[in-house]
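User: quick one, fold this
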Amino acid sequence: PKSQSMKISLINLLLATSCGIALAADPPLPEGGNALLTNTTKAQFSIPPEVGGVTSLTIADALANPVIRAEVNAPPPVPWKAFVAYPLGSAIMKGDVCLLGFQMRALSRDGASARGAIGVNVQLNPSHEKIVDQRYKPTAVWQKVSLPFRAELAIPEGSGVINLLFGSEPQTVELCDLQLTNYGPHADLTKLPHVPVETYGGREANAPWRKIAAANIEKHRKSELRIAVVDASGKPVPNAQVRVNLKRHAFGFGSAVTVDQILNWKTGGDKYRAMVEENFSRVVLENDLKTQNWMKAGETERAAHRTRTMETLGWLRGKEIPVRGHFLAWCYTQPWNESYFKAKDVPGIKRQIYDHMDSVLKETGNRLIEWDVINHPVAFGGNIADLAGPQVYAEIFNEARKRTGLKLWVNEDLFDSRERQDRYFEVVKRMIDDGAKPDGIGNMAHFRGANLISIPDWLAMSDRFATLVPNLAVTEYDLETENDELQADYLRDLLTATFSHPAYTQFIMWGFWEGKHWRPQAALWREDWSEKPSGKVWRELVKEKWHTRAEGRADGKGNYRVRGFHGTYEITVTSNGIFRTVNATLAKEGSEIRVALAK
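Assistant:
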């Protein structure tokens, strides 16, 4: 949280180390850890009166005292507008193994079931870079949280803070026994307790959704490819040898990529390009088409960036890899539009959006297949709709329609709370009512191990949004966790569930390589290009299980049939020493290909 933008009152909160229960008794904690919170740590409380309130109190049935009670009645635009912050007493070095722990519960409100949502991060100020960023869902029973982690960046003394974020939904929650212990770089991370165990609903091998998904993949993602082999005069060629190989999926199995790496002609660039070509049937440029990069202030720098971006799009077109456009309109305050938001200058905000549209759509043209137009309409504060009214999304969307015939999408991160899903649903519904129906609805799907949506809930959410628009997409998937097994299992199951749902057109990851990933821990391939378990899952599903390779002989009438996954194919036919290779597309309705053999 940016304290300069909030009303802060300081309350001395004693973190009594002697009155709490141990964070874990099995396995025992290592000796020699350095406590980064002490009984003199002062907490910064900030929940504005119009949002709710926060108090420190003693409760008889608490597992430790004092207890923080946070009440949120009117959630702010973003969770970090209602927080409690604890400055760290010592530095954390990059590579240090640490253990964060606390106890939590939720209280019933108005007779409803006790529920809540607490965000927890450990961050470096003033940059707000985070080494922990998790969300937890307390219930009516006191729950223990123990989160081991290895610091991915250094936090100098006096620069670190633990933030507890309460503003995501109406709730009354309690938290006590907050501890952060640093065990140094040589501690064994796997020996530290991890509570609650990170998992998700539907992970079981015999989960009912699996059988349904398998049937739906067979039904919706495959059709019959019919090949007729004839000679030069058009007569059937019986018993011809036929080989069929899927070159690239129609479904968008993809990732974000960067101009810098695609155009890296030095060490590592060849490997990066090869991995893109081999593993993905669709990509998106991570940041290169965004306003802050495409509309760079310096003319020389801007021209050079655009030239390199267009060269990258040319390389991808040469490899027949479709590209999504991201984005045309960013809907809340960022450095490039902050002055307009502060001045409540709606015409200025719109002008900046339309200038970007005019430039990027004209220059990229049909090198892209679709665009995210409305990006983040609900997730963060300072939104353009707060200034201009909810109809502004339809207005911006229709301005994009005037400028391009490409498919246009709306894009948001909607997985982690029903409230956000409801708000996103209403945004899209309002756009449709205002005459701006999007061609697709995107779900960014940025996950962490503590807040994974169950697979049945994911499918139910997908069913709900498909009633608005029948085209859905996972647009920015990643899962940040220390648990490689969980990371692999969840990718396997979420990817399977998504591929099985007929409304989805693509599953795009927001990066794949640790050496170029905004959350390196979420990558599928390590920096040395060794394959993580999640990378193995991707390869085995996309390149093997859901890949069509077939070989056989045409029948007596020169016909060969195979049921395959939709996409582009290479077909090779051989008979009596004569062969021919052709490319073909297998569509949803099936395809019939005629291959003529001639001497």
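User: anything notable?
Assistant: Residues 1-26 have pLDDT under 50 and may be disordered.
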